[in-house]
Amino acid sequence: MHDLADVRVLVYRRFAERGEPPRPEEVAAELGIGTPEALEALRALHDAHLLVLDDDRRRIVMAHPWSAVPLGFVVAGTRVKWWGGCAWDSFAIPALVGEPCLVATHCPGCGRALALDVCPDEPPTADLVAHFLVPIPRMWDDVMFACGHQALFCSEEHVGRWLRETRNPRGVILDLRTLWLLATRWYAGRLTREYRRRSPDEARALFGELGLSGPFWGGEAPEPEPAVERGLARTEPALLTRSGPAASAWKAAGAGPASDV
Ligand SMILES: [Zn+2]
């Protein structure tokens, strides 16, 4: 007998212990089931956004926060090294495996190599920033693209440089303390059977505790400021002061308040 939780925990723990996911045949052997059953379970987990399979729906590509393919982040523990799916994911791994890790990547704005120690129990102090391009409600439209665009930068200025060069809309910028708090809290319990995905309301509540609100995070836009003198209302309700045009662009693309993360 097996249930999806057994398969999910096996995949996540294998990633944590060995740095790579099990093949479907290994899942089957481990749980004493047939490979077709294992594949069926993996596909159900994929459809539930608890892991990501390749286009053939056979090979595990990601089981957040781990990736089987390079997405720009290397996370090195004392014994195992992993591909981190993104800045958010890479910052979650030390707390999940319970040891400090070296997180290495490149600043997309200038190409400089960035490396920092990330601990399980306190946020790093490096003076870098994270930029998330894709709003949370849109993340699973193309989760590999979304993860591939949650990066660390030298500075806000280098985020701006990269946005101009790539003509991408501005997403949101986080300091490393906020990123670390988000990552460790978001993924807490991921290796246990009891873990379950947050509902949109639970996700918004967690984001809100960290001061992350507004449409980018799956919340409502702030109330427009009262019309100023002589009835001149703002044409653009201030979406997110730090996210600027991106929020509008994604909103136009249909990002609603629903959150699926
Ligand atoms: Zn840079």
Describe the protein's architecture and organization.
Helix 2 crosses helix 3. The protein is built from 9 helices and 10 strands. With 261 residues, it is of the alpha+beta class. The chain is 36% helix and 15% strand. The strands form 2 sheets. Strands 1-2-3-5-4-6-7 form a 7-stranded antiparallel β-sheet, with helices on one face. A 3-stranded antiparallel β-sheet has the order 9-8-10. It has 3 domains: 59 residues, Winged helix-like DNA-binding domain superfamily/Winged helix DNA-binding domain (Arc Repressor Mutant, subunit A); 120 residues, Beta-Lactamase (2-Layer Sandwich); 53 residues, no CATH class. The C terminus is likely disordered. It is globular. InterPro entries: MerB, MerB_lyase_sf. This is Alkylmercury lyase. It comes from Sphaerisporangium album. One of its GO terms (molecular function) is alkylmercury lyase activity.
Describe this structure in a few short sentences.
The chain is an alpha+beta fold. Helices cover 36% and strands 15% of the residues. The strands form 2 sheets. The protein has a 7-stranded antiparallel β-sheet, with helices on one face.
